[in-house]
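thought: user wants a sequence for this fold. calling inverse folding tool.
action: design(structure=
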């Protein structure tokens, strides 16, 4: 999969940027250091001025790529879901057994992220931490319905659909496949957030992983006759 990913460009909604950051060295530096800076100080404290100081570039040069920091966050979160989607597709594509395919899918979305050398300007481990802590800020806005219609969340929604279809393959009679799929995808982020900040509110810890929890939750929600 590593060799295949080296030739793949993660496609992100073009409306998230004014100029494709993948098209230039400066654009890639903007993405790289925005991840480092948001991870360091948080999205609320993050500004294009601070990012410009970090990369020794004018603030105006960043505005040539992104309209504002909200659009930058939409870009980063979309890239993350696209990257995770590729892993999901490659890992499950050749699996014939529906239960095994679903089990692998749950593992892909819930396991700890490791650095992917295929994309040298993006630290996926730090980006994952940003998704855990900041992703909700990309859609808990007054503009969410408009942005949804414009396709800003298309990759995330596609991820939910893929998992929902796998759930149906395992148990066609289960009445809530989309709800269960979105619960698993969103819930993974929430469990990691709880382990970091409110450990007393979760049973996930160094011994019990989110993968174990969501495998148990999903398969125990499905037909008891399935071989999950």
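)
observation: tool returned 228 residues.
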């Amino acid at each position: 999969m590593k060799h295949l990913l080296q030739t793949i460009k993660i496609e992100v909604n073009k409306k998230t940027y004014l100029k494709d950051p993948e098209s230039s060295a400066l654009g890639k530096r903007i993405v790289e250091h925005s991840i480092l800076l948001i991870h360091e100080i948080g999205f609320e404290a993050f500004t294009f001025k601070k990012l410009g100081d970090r990369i020794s570039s004018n603030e105006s040069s960043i505005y040539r790529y992104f309209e504002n920091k909200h659009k930058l966050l939409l870009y980063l979160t979309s890239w993350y879901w696209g990257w995770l989607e590729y892993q999901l597709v490659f890992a499950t594509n050749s699996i014939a057994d529906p239960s095994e395919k679903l089990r692998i899918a749950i593992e892909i979305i819930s396991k700890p992220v490791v650095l992917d050398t295929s994309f040298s300007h993006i630290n996926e481990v730090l980006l994952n931490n940003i998704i855990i802590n900041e992703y909700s800020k990309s859609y808990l806005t007054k503009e969410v319905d408009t942005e949804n219609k414009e396709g800003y969340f298309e990759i995330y929604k596609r991820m939910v659909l893929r998992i929902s279809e796998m759930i149906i393959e395992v148990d066609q009679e289960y009445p809530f496949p989309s709800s269960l799929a979105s619960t698993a995808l969103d819930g993974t982020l929430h469990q990691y957030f709880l382990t970091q900040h409110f450990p007393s509110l979760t049973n996930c810890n160094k011994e019990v992983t989110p993968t174990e929890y969501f495998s148990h939750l999903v398969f125990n929600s499905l037909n008891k006759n399935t071989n999950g």
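thought: summarizing for user.
answer: Here is the designed sequence. The chain has one domain: 2-221.
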